[in-house]
Amino acid sequence: MTKVDDKCQFCGNHSDEYFPVLVQLGEGVANACRSCAIKIGIIEPSKEELLGGFEISSPKEIYNIIDEFVIGHKKAKKTLATEIFKHYLRLLNEDWLIENNKRVKKSNILMLGPTGVGKTYLAQTLANSIGVPFAIADATTLTETGYVGEDVENIIHTLLMQCDFDVKKAEVGIVYIDEIDKLAMKGENMSLTRDVSGEGVQEGLLKLLEGHKVRVPANGGRKHPQQQMIEVDTSNILFIAGGAFTGIEDIVKRRIKGKKELGFGANVSSNNVNYSDSEIRKMISVDDLLKYGFKREFVGRFPKIASLEYLEAEDLINILKARHGVLEEYEAIFELMNKKLFITNEALLEIANKALERETGARALKSIMEEIMEDILFEAPSEDAIEYIISDNDIKKFYNESLIKIA
Predict the structure, then answer these.
(1) Rounded mean pLDDT of 235-250?
(2) Nearest to 208 by CA among 157, 148, 162
């Protein structure tokens, strides 16, 4: 469209390109810049505009961005960075693929990792690094249609809410489905058990995961007649599902042991090889997921599996020290009081070991720090002391006596 005026009649900004907009009857045509024309609905935004000007980074660049915030899990971060790169490379070049009769399939990702290792945080950091809409859904709230709970389409409603119900923008977003392991069908005779939060929900999610046009209740909740619906195409929505998959190690161990016992001339003593839980999780296969209680069609919607390891004490110390981490948070609080907080490396190790005892991963770090710092912060604003030093002996004394000495 050729330029017909020197500014947009909607936002007042100057532009190199204007689009005519029919206003009220008898008032003629107004000129809109591209941004306003998109908002009004006169023209469709490009994929680049939907992604906020996102430029494709290399997998290494995406990895490095994630690495600034997420400690450990090198293999999982490499997998996620590569898959994100492939997904948006495909999305931004969709027209070229169509013109050249090429097809690149979407690869949803399944993340398996113990509680508290950072699955949700990793997914959110990924979305933030490329600036796309991101929504978190809880698989435990979903039930088969006809039962109390949420329809699977509410996952998409959550995404719509995150981008102010801009359907086009939602259609290039990322959805993280947490607690996906809770959808596993339980029991020896799973096919004969009607499981409203297991098999039925797995089947209900298939269309969303694969990529179809789905009808989403405009106000969320359960679907009912005469309800306003929003149609959303999920073909370009990337789904990342995560879960702890507690007990799956036993399934993997049985499989490994069975293979060794069946091998010709197998050395029986080799069956006693002790693998760590982290090593076992790296060996998880599709067959293990099926035995855990997932339908083959459901697992097939997640071509890529990323396993996150158990966190060690060193990982937890690095999480404490990380950018925007809990240690930085308390240091900032003391700076606001014109004071200094020092926590020795030995004390950080003591905190990390205490978190390991609680078996909730990185989640335990914040609660432990809050326990330790409560009395100090209660007294500090009223004291003349400028520097506060916390040692490993202080941590031990606190948990032995519920009291910490301020140096």
Answers:
(1) 92
(2) 157
